[in-house]
């Protein structure tokens, strides 16, 4: 584990030189191609995911594999990288990630970020609660959107949820470094605790009794999203204060869950901001 990294400073003169390690990645333990997950950490690849992680003082790093082109790109941004990179051929990174992964010449092995508890959440938070969303592309897209709209945390379960690594991290486009996770064993119990702490828990449901636009909103607020197809589980529905639907004018009335999250967050954050 490396020492605590410092914040990067913009730079345009420092270039990758002979002090950067060169080598093959063939002896490095790589991710499982199906899950892209290390037993004791995570992998991050692609410019946004790796750049944001390297700029995050809370991250702890294990190794960084980069191509020569990626090394030059990184040194245009960072005066001093928080970890010494190893220069490899693109094919070496290809071998360590899924066949369709767009890694842009960089692969970072890091420790997982610390998670929060429900009790750690600030009193006026806006949070998302994910009920057994298992597609890492969807969850990653939701993380990216949550970051864009200033969501304070994402609550999800320890089981039936994708790990914050690989495909999810790439889809999140760096959002993992800015939106903390609250991992719970029992989602219904967590929603009960949130309600007791003053949260308005709004479940998004296509058959909700109210349109989301008509629900009076306040902070702290939890938006609860269910898996595509299955939607919210029954006990999750029962723990929500309100079940709201997202009304759309077109012929297709349902949206991909990550798109629905974006539309809902735009509406919610606009209304909360207007209230001051």
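Q: What amino acid sequence fits the structure above?
A:
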């Amino acid at each position: 584990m490396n020492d605590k990294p410092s914040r990067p400073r913009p730079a345009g003169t420092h270039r990758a030189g002979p002090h950067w390690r060169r080598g093959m990645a063939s002896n490095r333990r790589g991710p499982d191609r199906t899950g892209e997950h290390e037993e004791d950490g995570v992998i991050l690849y692609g410019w946004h995911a790796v750049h944001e992680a390297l700029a995050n003082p809370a991250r702890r790093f294990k190794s960084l594999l980069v191509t020569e082109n990626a090394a030059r790109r990184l040194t245009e941004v960072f005066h001093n990288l928080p970890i010494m990179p190893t220069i490899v051929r693109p094919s070496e990174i290809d071998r360590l990630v899924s066949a369709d992964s767009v890694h842009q010449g960089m692969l970072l092995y890091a420790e997982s970020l610390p998670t929060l508890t429900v009790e750690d959440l600030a009193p006026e938070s806006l949070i998302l609660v994910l009920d057994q969303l298992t597609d890492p592309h969807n969850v990653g897209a939701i993380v990216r959107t949550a970051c864009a709209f200033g969501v304070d945390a994402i609550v999800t379960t320890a089981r039936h949820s994708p790990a914050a690594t690989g495909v999810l991290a790439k889809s999140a486009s760096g959002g993992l470094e800015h939106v903390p996770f609250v991992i719970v064993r029992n989602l219904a119990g967590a929603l009960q605790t949130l309600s007791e702490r003053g949260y308005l828990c709004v479940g998004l449901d296509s058959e909700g009794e109210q349109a989301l636009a008509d629900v009076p909103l306040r902070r702290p607020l939890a938006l609860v999203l269910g898996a595509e197809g299955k939607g919210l589980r029954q006990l999750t529905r029962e723990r929500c204060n309100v079940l709201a639907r997202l009304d759309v004018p077109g012929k297709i009335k349902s949206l991909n869950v990550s798109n629905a999250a974006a539309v809902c967050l735009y509406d919610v954050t606009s209304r909360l901001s207007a209230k001051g």
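Q: And what stands out in the fold?
A: The domain at 21-110 is CATH 3.30.1330.30 (60s Ribosomal Protein L30; Chain: A;).
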